[in-house]
Amino acid sequence: MAATSIGPGTFAAVVGAGHSGAAACRLLCRLGARVRLLDRRADNVTADFLAWADAAGVEMLIGEHAPEHFAGADVIVLSPGVPVAVVRRLVPEAVIGEAGKPELMAETELAWRQLDGEPLLGITGTSGKTTTTTLCAAMLAEQGMRVFLGGNIGTPLSRYVLDVADGAPRADALVLELSSFQLQACSMLRPHVGVLLGIAPNHLDHHADMQEYVHAKMRLFRRQDECDVAVLAEESASLAQAHNLRARREVARVPDPPRFDSMRLLGPHNQRNAEIAWVACREFGVSEEVARRAVAAQPPIEHRLELVAERRGVLYVNDSKCTTVTALKVALEAFDRPVLLLAGGKFKGGDLAGLAGLLRERVRAVGLYGACRDVFEAAWQGVAPLFYDPTLEEAALRLADLARSGDVVLLAPATASYDQYANYMVRGEDFRRIVGEVPA
Q: N or C: which end of the chain has fewer CB within 10 A?
């Protein structure tokens, strides 16, 4: 396997003009490459970036991708939301981490190759990534380490590389949330500590099947050896055996009583997330006392079981980051009071019918909205009272009218947001706005 050397004379095509794509373009230009940026939509390109790209000589192609757009490229860099399969259909000769042209890589892989030995703590899995990643960064920072927090959680790794090149101090540890899309196009990435949370059906609208999805997740560990550590949730321990992980394995189990008894995060699942984060950070010298302080101080994370308001005894909770059926199960199990559930959007796959028992036990009504109404109704008809409205606002206000003191109105869509919103954050912010209109 031979990695492409990137520098003057390299022709790079970057797919996707979001935060990661923009950072990748800036980094490639800094390395001396000639850059072409492709995006289907002009409104994905910010005015600031457009001005920079014009000055830097970045060629920009807006509209549907075509094979000729990639002609002559040495490297194709993918933003996290761009499935590998999309590019491979257009450029069948593209390879990931092997000799030949063009080499296909994620933005994270591009940035990883420019590092200077900073240790990486990488977290992947289906649900709980953002919380666990955030807790890891908080524990390391509480220990006094300089931490970069990014990846799928927000800031691209390329941005860190650029900042260091501009004189910013290097981090003592890099903490990255990593999605299946990012990992699928990584070949040399090697975390000193890799964390695998549970894996359940997800992104089956992009991955060919569950096997491809799992294989992408397990690429986090493929470059590790006996000097590295793989931290595994209990339910993922068998995958380590099946995929012949070479790293030292640590299975994280919540003790009885739980170690972290002072926590502002909602739900028992966060005891598991905190324990996994502690086991991972222990490898960086974090003490249990420091971990406890970090967990106790951690505020609720935006859009992840975030308490928005209480109106007339009704809690309004924003779990817009709930984009999978597994995350919905976790959200419902977090409450011991009746739930009025808001669900709907672009369904990514999973066993909705398998939640029937939990819905009967905990959900007083379901307000469906947006796309995939038929999928939810087929799975839940007769299980709980179902209502449908075209928009989230209409559905939320309907449930607000139905709610009684002691209830929870919970936005936990179990879907991607792309039918009506640019991303789950915009969806969650809209829910906050709607809740602000509910009489106090």
A: C
